[in-house]
Amino acid sequence: MKISTKEMILVSLFTALTAIGAFLSIPLGDVPITLQSMFAILAGLLLGPKLGSLSQIVYILLGLSGVRIFSNFSGGPQAILKPSFGFLIGFAFAAFIIGKIAHNGETIDFKRIFMATLMGTFVIYLFGLPYMYIILNNVMGKAVPLSVAIKTGCLIFLPGDLLKAILSSLVATKVLKRVSTT
Q: What backbone torsions phi and psi does residue 104 show, to the nearest 5 degrees?
């Protein structure tokens, strides 16, 4: 895949925005509340499937290489053993799927974009919840029932994620309409 200078800048921008989203966090148990997912969603909506997911892959690789850009100013390969790391993996897949759905039509439609964000949010949970459950039980040695993992890793985040989905969809609809007319 050949990438233009403009595309490299956009990928870097969303990598940086995701890192900033990690620093804007509220500690809450094993998985903090952050704005990372909103920037992963916006990456897919605004950059499309390939560049959106690339921005999230670059973010993950930078963090794993030791740059302290994950939540709580953490980084390094040991981040793989944190309960929240599965959600980061979900960001890359979510950005791809969101981009595929959102850019799958000729017109910019709020309903399609909003549905894409909801699907992307589901994908983030699809990766994050099982990963969190496995790490908590098998690596950290906590005896966490699945019902508690779902409550602490999903249910308490749903209202905020719905708000992020609405805001991302509104922003993307406006930006994409503006960009498509120029």
A: -100, 20
